[in-house]
Amino acid sequence: MPPRLTRLLQSGGPFLGLLLVCGLFALTEERQFIFTGGNFKNILTQTVIVAVGALGMTLIIVGGGIDLSVGSVVALTGVLGAKLLVAGWSPWTTAGALVAAGGAIGLFNGAIVAGFRMMPFIVTLGMMGVVRGAAKWLGDNQTINIPADSSAGRLMARVNPAEFWPLPPGVWILLALAVVMALLLRRTVFGRHVFAVGANETASRYSGVRVGLVKAATYGIAGLLFGFAGLLQMSRLTQGDPTVAVGLELDIIAAVVIGGASLSGGAGSISGSLIGALIMALLRNGTNQLGWQTYTQEIIIGVVIVFAVGLDKWRQSRLARS
Amino acid sequence: MNSPLRALFLTLGCAMATLAAVAADPSYTIAVIPKGTTHEFWKSIHAGAVKAEQELTGQGMKVRLFWKGPLREDDRDQQIQVVENFTARKVSGIVLAPLDSQALVAPVTSATQAGVPTVVIDSDLKSDKQISFVATDNFKGGQMAGEFLVKALGGKGNIILLRYQVGSASTEAREAGFLDALKKFPDLKLVSSDQHAGATRELGYQASQNLLNRYGKDVSGIFCPNETVTIAMTKALRDIGRAGGQVKIVGFDSGSQSVLDLKNGDVQALVVQDPVKMGYLGVMTLVQHLQGKPIEKRIDTGVSLVTKENMNEPDMAALLAPPIAKYLKE
């Protein structure tokens, strides 16, 4: 196979998947509603929270880890944010506090995983319960509305819903964060080390990579992003809800995996994960508008995940042989 | 975005514009968005909406109904997405039972800006954008329960009110109505009115057991503001052997278990809503608005008090067991 085609297949797999889904919806009568500027603004807005989470999750999964506590962190930081806003904090300091809180939880996860050499699945499964409980405790088992005129509620607001422009601030911030994370993963020594640790931990250790530090840092950095996702979720609901985002981590992991990452570590890309998140939002959006039953949506999304990963395996084995 | 993709979108865009121009027929597409899809209550709302669709079709109108709950039940963000997606779908209008009075304000506002009117049913929304609010008068329902209990107890005795959940607007209105009806009777003593049962039957059962452990011997009347609390409290009362009329229970809403308890005499009365009518009037009100007819801002769908004596009358029987199968082919 010519090297250019090989590269295209390697990086373009998820993108082809996105085009395929677009193509399928283009065959339906609802295309006149689905392919409009207003609806693409819709889909992008609905993608943002999963996508911000996927940026962090990509880092963790590439490094050979997993984090199941994301949904709980989003809920806790959302409740915390609403409480701080009600207490009179400015939106900017609140945002800073939420990102820091997310980072602290992530760092804690990472420190346990690295320090005690424990399975990240177990550590973060435990943390999922701890943080969810803390969110309900902090919120006194109820939702907390943010002040009605707070500018923190405008991050995800769609002005002019029938047109593509202007996009909500959240979408722009996502794109900026994606660029930063892609550079971090591809262009820095730290990023190289994350790939190395994910691909072969023992070999990395023998070549002088400080594995524990790298691991703790991946969870910490991802935690910052999860805290930010919590801010976005709060802004979207205009309230802190301790029961929100149950199972969000599975959507995020699915997005990362559809985007070509390997759950055994050492492979994955930021752009792929973003497209993975977009594919899932597009599927939900399209099947909603086609009026399909909720259960068919769930089945289709499940099939797509397995199909996407299967396709990826097949592609990689072809590439390895050629 | 690379240029072939942009070309693809442009081509699609042109194709759509042409299609939109051709397909201009005067039919109505209506999205009905419940809080969830598995509860019997929402199936009754669905049946009512389908009843309206059938009637309108019978009058020669073209009506297409979308019935779509949030993908994960009780997930506010998912319900917001459904509202947004139907707004983009450019339905003629939306009938919405908001999961939260605050979180759904923004999407309804966007829908209104995009020219898609919304009728709110079942639970209120803190907004002035909805064209009408079609729901039960829950305060009145609570008052009816209180008045029944006053009469059944002859105006004296110890009363328990086990509340449902903090922040649930509909049940809080019922609880307030109930307390309002008791105010004029000083011989009725409210021994407990500040406990909350919680969302599930199991939590309600635990709370009931705890309360009855403390007040079980002295209590003479109990009000439960929704289905799960009613069922849980009745079960707990049966456990301590004071069910069957020794302690009078008034519940709210009907489910197969609470209807059985009513028949067996463990529950003395149920205040029931009319979800079929709610779904029906939700769609009808929206269509009237779309036709340019004036509509009411607030439509009460009524509550009824069902007891063992009147539960077999046709009207009441229809409320206890809504004719879902007649409208939904499932």
Topology of this structure?
The complex is a heterodimer of chains A (322) and B (330).
Chain A: H1 3-26, H2 31-34, H3 37-62, H4 70-86, H5 91-115, H6 120-138, E1 144-145, H7 169-187, H8 189-199, H9 201-206, H10 211-237, E2 239-240, H11 248-258, H12 270-289, H13 294-321
Antiparallel strand pairs in A: 1-2
Chain B: H1 3-22, E1 28-33, H2 40-58, E2 63-67, H3 76-88, E3 93-96, H4 105-113, E4 118-121, E5 132-135, H5 138-153, E6 157-163, H6 169-182, E7 188-196, H7 201-215, E8 221-223, H8 227-239, E9 248-252, H9 256-264, E10 269-272, H10 275-290, E11 298-300, E12 304-307, H11 314-320, H12 324-327
Parallel strand pairs in B: 1-2, 1-3, 3-4, 4-5, 5-11, 6-7, 6-8, 8-9, 9-10
Antiparallel strand pairs in B: 10-12
Task: Output the keywords.
heterodimer; A: 322 residues; mainly alpha; B: 330 residues; Rossmann fold; 6-stranded parallel sheet; 6-stranded mixed sheet; 12 strands; 18% strand
